[in-house]
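Quick review question:
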């Protein structure tokens, strides 16, 4: 046991010293906790790393990546000694913080503190939902724990308070957080920034609290984890007292947190802990220990589960088919038949169109789950089959409460559990959840974020609720696809594209105000990101718009035609999709020999200059007024757009 624990420590320290970069304190301090959880409790195996019913482990304290990589190496995952030697180097398999989809065995991208605990909450909700939905007749095809390891910093983040509050409210009994409590953070003692009573705080949040006073006593840790596993109606937090950098001259100091010990000091610690092995060397006994207690044990679990699944498939073939689709991330929706085309003349807010589309899709696919940040009456984005809670685990509407940041991170956790999860809110408050949306983009996972009240047309609520810069913020975030549909049918297309997209997160931006369906459109055109929505022979210029401004552009086109001026109108619901098209298609839609172009959008204009020399946008904050008055104040009227075009 000690050799295995020290193998985790020194493989991690050697990686940090070679990179001359990393966080040795947690590697020395928390390695016993890591060892015990992996070898005694986690039901995982590198032979089947994506086994659907595996326990999930999230290193929320992502700066401890060297500890995770050394553990994964010893456990048999595809992390080699050469990978450890390349820690934090360009294009290595072992980046500075864990990255999902990059390193075998990593369940989530972590590092920004609080994201890991919050994604673990999402995974626990996903497990609970799937367990209620599919387990029948004692055939438990879904039954696993979600574990997270966090530090003091994690527990100080606001997103953590949001997610742990919701986890306690929902009584997620299969969520267990191991708290590496060493009383030190980067700037010094935790007491210099925080004086909370951890026990009282989390018990008040309806968490089960256990304390292990000394990590070196693994018997107490074993007892605590077993007790936590037995608590069915509350998530558990186990506070484990550790010493940061234990065994080194920096033990118990903040200096142990984020600076390499150096080879000389590491050699001294080696002797002190009686680890008589060379750099990047681990004892055969450690490999045998992990092989016996992780690989062999995990493979037995997989074999038993496969037998259960076979029986389940015979007894419940339809449910088994649905479960298989979820496990395989298969898209089973017939979008054409589910999302009906609306007739010309339909006039409704795209939030209403979106709510209808979401309900229709949810009826077809049991993997769709989500909710809004206390705003379903306004956003119309609500899961079906009731409110997910203690008494209805099979429900698909999650009442996130006013917890935007946790909502987004939890959504990521649900998606990591193979569910098609969505989060809804007012667009201006995308600021509150941007960090989690960014993590989704980093992981290339298909989380769906639906925002309504998309512009100054929000009106009376005023500038605090009127988004200006948010479209640019999200459009400039790598791997994010932003959709701003112009009317009911484009909204259907946006939902179709977003729910069938597996390459990264999607953002759908919808209106509060009514917009009219004026012309016929097709999904084939829409999915190219921009298309000619209305054309005129011998057009002299082009109006380009997105969202509700497409209606404005079409009406301006008619007004200009009365004055003998022919213009083309291009709808651009997604800059990202348009930018992926061929040069030939781009030239067809926006020919270079038509320099007279005007882009129209009620938001920051900057990005539109890629497509037009002239842009009608907004470069200040909004106003409190009726929606139509706000639009007129900012010049988004047919008369004003016509005037601007004529002046070009």
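Suggested answer, residue by residue:
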């Amino acid at each position: 046991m000690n050799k295995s624990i020290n193998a985790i420590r020194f493989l991690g320290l050697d990686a940090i010293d070679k990179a001359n970069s990393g966080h040795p304190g947690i590697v020395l301090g928390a390695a016993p906790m890591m060892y015990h959880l992996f070898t005694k409790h986690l039901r995982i195996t590198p032979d089947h790393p994506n086994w659907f019913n595996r326990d999930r482990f999230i290193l929320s304290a992502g700066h401890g990546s060297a500890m995770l990589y050394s553990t994964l190496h010893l456990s048999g995952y595809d992390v080699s000694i050469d990978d450890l030697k390349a820690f934090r180097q360009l294009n290595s398999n072992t980046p500075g913080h864990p990255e999902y989809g990059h390193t075998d065995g990593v369940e989530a991208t972590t590092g920004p503190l609080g994201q890991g605990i919050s994604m673990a909450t999402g995974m626990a909700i996903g497990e609970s939902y799937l367990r209620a939905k599919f387990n029948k007749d004692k055939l438990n095809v879904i039954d696993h724990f979600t574990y997270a390891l966090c530090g003091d910093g994690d527990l100080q983040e606001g997103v953590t308070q949001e997610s742990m509050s919701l986890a306690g409210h929902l009584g997620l009994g299969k969520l267990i957080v191991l708290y590496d409590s060493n009383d030190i953070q980067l700037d010094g003692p935790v007491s210099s920034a925080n004086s909370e009573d951890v026990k009282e705080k989390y018990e008040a949040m309806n968490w089960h609290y256990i304390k292990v006073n000394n990590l070196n006593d693994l018997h107490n840790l074993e007892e605590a984890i077993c007790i936590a596993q037995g608590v069915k109606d509350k998530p558990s937090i186990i506070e484990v007292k550790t010493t940061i950098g234990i065994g080194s001259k920096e033990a118990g100091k903040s200096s142990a947190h984020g600076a390499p010990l150096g080879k000389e000091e590491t050699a001294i610690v080696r002797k002190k802990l009686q680890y008589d092995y060379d750099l990047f060397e681990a004892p055969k006994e450690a490999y045998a220990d992990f092989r016996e207690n992780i690989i062999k044990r995990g493979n037995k679990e997989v074999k038993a589960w496969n037998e259960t699944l076979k029986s389940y498939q015979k007894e419940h073939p339809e449910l088994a088919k649905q479960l298989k689709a979820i496990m395989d991330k298969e898209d089973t929706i017939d979008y054409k038949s589910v999302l009906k085309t609306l007739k010309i003349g339909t006039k409704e807010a795209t939030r209403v169109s979106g709510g209808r589309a979401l309900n229709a899709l949810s009826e077809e696919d049991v993997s769709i789950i989500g909710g809004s940040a206390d705003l379903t009456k306004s956003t119309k984005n609500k899961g079906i089959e009731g409110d997910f809670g203690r008494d209805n685990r099979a429900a698909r509407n999650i009442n996130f409460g006013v917890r935007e940041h946790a909502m987004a991170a939890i959504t990521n956790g649900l998606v990591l559990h193979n569910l098609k999860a969505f989060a809804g809110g007012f667009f201006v408050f995308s600021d509150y959840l941007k960090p989690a949306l960014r993590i989704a983009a980093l992981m290339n996972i298909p989380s769906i974020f639906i925002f309504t009240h998309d512009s100054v047309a929000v009106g009376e609520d005023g500038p605090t609720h009127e988004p200006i810069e948010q479209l640019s913020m999200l459009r400039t975030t790598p791997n994010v696809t932003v959709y701003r549909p112009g009317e009911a049918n484009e909204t259907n297309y946006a939902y179709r594209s977003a729910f069938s997209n597996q390459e990264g997160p999607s953002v759908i931006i919808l209106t509060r105000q009514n917009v009219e369906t004026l012309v016929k459109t097709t999904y084939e055109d829409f999915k190219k990101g921009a298309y000619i929505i209305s054309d005129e022979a011998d057009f002299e210029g082009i109006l380009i718009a997105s969202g509700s401004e497409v209606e404005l552009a079409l009406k301006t086109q008619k007004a200009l035609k009365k004055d003998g001026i022919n213009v083309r109108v291009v709808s651009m619901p997604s800059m990202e999709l348009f930018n992926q098209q061929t040069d030939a298609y781009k030239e067809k839609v926006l020919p270079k020999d038509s320099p007279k172009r005007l882009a129209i959008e009620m938001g920051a204009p900057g990005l539109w200059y890629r497509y037009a020399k002239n842009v009608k946008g907004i470069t200040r904050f909004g106003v409190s007024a009726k929606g139509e008055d706000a639009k007129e104040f900012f010049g988004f009227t047919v008369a004003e757009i016509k005037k601007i075009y004529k002046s070009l």
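Why it works: The first strand starts at residue 56 and ends at 59. The CA atoms of residues 29 and 246 lie 6 Å apart.
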